[in-house]
From TrEMBL:
Keywords: Lyase, Metal-binding. One of its GO terms (cellular component) is cytoplasm. This is HpcH/HpaI aldolase/citrate lyase family protein. InterPro entries: Aldolase/citrate-lyase_domain, HpcH-HpaI_aldolase, Pyrv/PenolPyrv_kinase-like_dom, Pyrv_kinase-like_dom_sf. The keyword Metal-binding applies. It comes from Coccidioides immitis (strain RS) (Valley fever fungus). PANTHER family: 2-KETO-3-DEOXY-L-RHAMNONATE ALDOLASE, SYNTHASE, PUTATIVE-RELATED. Residues 287-311 are annotated as: Disordered. GO terms for molecular function: aldehyde-lyase activity; metal ion binding. Signal peptide: none annotated. Residues 49-223 form the HpcH/HpaI aldolase/citrate lyase domain. It comes from the Eukaryota.
Length: 311
């Protein structure tokens, strides 16, 4: 395990294993990884988006070499047990090379706790106000010093027996320092309130994600991006606020237009649903190249077997 503060020196060889905890059931030192990426000590954290979270797909995603796997619990039908098993699969099958980040469904205190208890970091969607951000931080952190009211899981990590990174601190304070919190700003209201949110809670929020799809929906605009003056004005205010508070930006870059990922410390660049969509071209190519059956050709099957194509 890398020494605290020197993790970035081992990333070129070990990847995110440099930031792993003593146990893969604990969250990685994701807060430090985000800060190191933001400060340019390592490259941006590159992620795989798991839109269809199941244990089998998680096992595959864990072997793709991503720095993190984004588990979309918000827009999937998996329950708490499946989400927990998915997180464990990501971090154990990857042997710590990939961190699990769970986008939770809403701001529910219990759901945020379930994801953190599983050993993941969390992404919380649609944070619009200071009050909502306070609730999210409260659900994320242990102890009033961190503005938290998270309940300690008595059978998850055992105080006094769980191995910790910093032996001078409790397991709860260690986990506070490990698991990252990313909030998603997805409306004009959220952008306008972001300055106040980061002024009050910036020490507990590790990065911000601009959700351009929901932002544009809230503005009555189509698509993920556009050049409309009102949209570009909102983006400029968002970026100016992050610079003011020295806070990492995060987002998606799926199209190969790398400019969308520039100056971001946490970038989702691939996903399972994109892989499925890519098969559309294969199906169309098959339609164009496989003719209708010709009953007069009696040797087709035999020829196929000779070529090893009929299994």
């Amino acid at each position: 395990m890398a020494a605290v503060g020197s993790e970035h020196k081992e990333v070129s060889v070990r990847g995110m294993q440099a930031y792993r905890a003593p146990s893969l059931l604990q969250p990685h030192r994701a807060r430090q990884a985000l800060r190191d990426a933001y400060e340019g000590k390592i490259g941006p954290l590159l992620g795989f988006y798991l839109a269809f979270p199941t244990v089998p797909t998680a096992r595959v995603a864990a072997q793709l070499g991503a720095d993190f796997v984004w588990v979309d619990w918000e827009h999937s039908s998996c329950g708490v047990e499946t989400m927990t098993s998915v997180v464990h699969a990501i971090q154990n099958v990857s042997e710590g090379r990939s961190m699990a980040f769970v986008r939770v469904p809403g701001h529910d205190h219990a759901n945020i706790g379930f994801a953190l208890d599983a050993g993941a970091s969390v992404v919380v969607p649609q944070v619009d106000t200071v009050e909502q951000a306070e609730h999210v931080v409260s659900a994320t952190k242990f102890g009033a010093v961190r503005k938290g009211s998270r309940s300690a899981p008595p059978a998850r990590w055992l105080a006094g027996s769980s191995v910790t990174i910093d032996s001078s601190r409790s397991i709860w304070e260690n986990v506070n320092n490990q698991a990252a919190l990313i909030i998603q700003i997805e409306s004009e209201i959220g952008i306008k309130n972001l300055d106040a949110i980061l002024t009050l809670l910036g020490d507990q929020i590790d990065a911000v994600w601009i959700g351009t799809l929901d932002l544009r929906v809230s503005m009555g605009l189509d698509g993920l991006w556009g050049e409309e003056p009102e949209f570009q004005s909102a983006i400029r205010l968002y970026e100016e606020t992050l610079r003011k508070h020295d806070k990492p930006n995060s987002g998606g870059c799926f199209t190969g237009n790398w400019s969308l990922g520039s100056n971001k410390s946490f970038v989702v660049v691939a996903g399972d649903w994109l892989g499925l969509l890519g098969q559309r071209d294969n199906i169309q190519t098959a339609r164009e190249n496989l003719p209708a059956s010709d009953k007069r050709s009696k040797n087709t099957f035999a020829k196929g077997n000779e070529n090893g194509t009929n299994l």
